[in-house]
Amino acid sequence: MTTFKRAKGFWLSISLSLIFFAVIQVLIGGGSLNPFYQNTLMFIGINIILAASLHLIIGVTGQFSIGHAGFLAVGAYASAIMTMKLEMPFVVALIVGGLVAALAGLIIGIPSLRLKGDYLAIATLGFGEIVRIILLNIDYVGGASGMQVSHFTTWPWVFAAVLVTIIVIRNFTSSTHGRACISIREDETAADSMGINTTYYKVVAFAIGAFFAGIAGGLYAHNFYIIQPSNFGFLKSFDILILVVLGGLGSLSGAVLAAILLTVVTTFLQDYPETRMIIYSLVLIVMMIYRPQGLMGTKEITSMFKRKGGSSHENKNTAA
Known about the structure:
72% helix; transmembrane; ABC_transp_permease; membrane; globular; mainly alpha; transmembrane helix; 2 strands
């Protein structure tokens, strides 16, 4: 019965998502959405992918990473090389960008994920800066001047990438592998004593998160006509981190809601940079004072629609 309810809820969510996609596509095709609103939709989708991918690393596995912009940069430049230098199809470029970012995640993850807390944060921050400096000094991709990229990112591509990202990360979290990652977040020592290969699962979560960050990088690169290493500094990593913290550590729904909220606020206040940063900072301060657990805490939005008399087993499944 529980399996049937889950399947029903899954297909209902997919159906509503496809209806939303169709409505937006009709509005775009009919000219009701001007380029500004279309670009805002692209940003929202890209930020949702970034927030969801970092949620898997920090919110689910509990690994404090602040080098996510490095994976975004790797995916952006790898996909741009595939389309602009090697003239490969856009879908191939996106996949390659994701795979190269996942490989980078493995390279940095295997040695550094034995670290914990602040030490891991410093290591990932160093990785992000290393990537940026390397890109600054490679003439093949334009160096500091940046690399010209054709515009291939469209609403269908962004929607498909967001849908796949959320489905994969949600299903991974609900699987036995995801439960192992959650146990690492709750108490790594206890998880290790119970026979869970903590290093393996941390590296897996890191690689999956890096893969989807690379996909977001490919979409990001091809949404503009030029990409530069300065777009992927450590402040970009903090922007992505804020999405996860504001939404609630351990809540995929919260990460998605925070990505939508902050992207809309940032976009519509971009003409007032001073005011935007003041409002942005005040929102974060108020949130951390009055609701430090974030918008959703560790709950998912689906838990709001469950009956109060539901079993405790079902309530536990909505966490993280």
